[in-house]
Design a protein that fits this description.
By secondary structure, the chain is of the alpha/beta class. The chain contains 9 helices and 11 strands. It has one domain: Spore Coat Polysaccharide Biosynthesis Protein SpsA, Chain A, CATH 3.90.550.
Length: about 270
């Protein structure tokens, strides 16, 4: 285990985490895959990425929330093309994992990063398009299954309605830019966007899903170039829906995050806009 660097002088608030570095940095961009007990789904996804030589296009890091199923064993990850495993030890859920990964990636000098879930639902073959968009100067790039060329299968109907009729319209209104698939974790950010003093993503207010919603709207609010890329998202047929949003309480939590994002509650206090 290699302890993380000291982020205190940066003013960033990062949960405690450990790093296993499996090989040196090789590319200007990095793919961040947040996971928690994804098992064979993660291994199948990494195998597909290797078959497409994506590990040569961008380094891959695993942001582990504390898996106990053996799926993030470092030697197994190395064989699947992964550069590093970051294991969060501090409190928090998805947003806390992402803060660890983004801070470490920025410290390593990457020019931008793509985030994609580790549950195998997203079409990894589109990943080079996200890297091209970063090369072209986009600050935020969002995957969408709903635009022309996109594809989705077995999406729970209630989830699809909530995205199309509530989540996407409200976040689009807040962003001042039309977006169609705003719950998607498949997205890219430029280094400049994440380091902009008016963004400040490394704060303790981002614990669960807040960071995804906030970064969705903040880019266009600040004038960064934003675009969507058509992708596929396929839920497995005949299996329990692999989603973290189940039950009444998580739904209320998501609605609260949506409201706080729209009302700019997550904006840095030093920035009144």
């Amino acid at each position: 285990m290699i302890a993380t660097g000291d982020f205190s002088r940066s003013g960033w608030s990062i949960p405690d985490f450990d790093v296993d570095v499996l090989h040196e940095r090789r590319t200007p961009y990095v793919v961040v895959i947040p996971v928690l007990n994804e098992g064979d789904r993660l291994h199948r996804q990494l195998t597909r990425m290797m078959a497409l030589s994506l590990h040569h296009t961008a380094d891959i890091i695993i942001a582990d929330g504390g898996s106990t199923d053996g799926s993030t064993d470092p030697q197994g990850l190395l064989a699947l093309g992964v550069r590093a495993r970051l294991t969060k030890r501090g409190p928090g859920a998805l947003s806390a994992q992402l803060r660890c990964a983004y801070a470490w990636a920025l410290q390593e000098g990457y020019d931008g990063m793509v985030t994609i879930d580790g549950n195998g639902k997203d079409g990894v073959e589109t990943l080079p398009q996200f890297l091209t968009a970063l090369d072209d100067g986009y600050g935020y790039v969002q995957a969408s299954r709903f635009i022309r060329g996109g594809h989705h299968e077995n999406t729970p109907w209630l989830r699809a309605l909530a995205i199309r009729l509530i989540h996407a319209p409200l976040l689009s209104l807040a962003a001042g830019h039309w977006l169609t698939d705003t719950t998607q974790g498949y997205r890219a950010y430029s280094r400049d966007y994440l380091l902009d003093r008016r963004v400040q993503p490394f704060r303790d207010v981002f614990v669960r899903y807040e960071l995804l919603a906030y970064l969705t709207v903040r880019a266009s609010q600040l004038g960064y170039r934003v675009r969507e890329i058509a992708t596929s998202r396929v839920y497995p047929r005949g299996e329990a829906i692999p989603t973290k949003i189940r039950g009444f309480s998580p739904l209320i939590d998501l609605l609260v995050i949506l409201w706080r994002t729209v009302t700019r509650a997550y904006h840095p206090k030093s920035d009144p806009r």
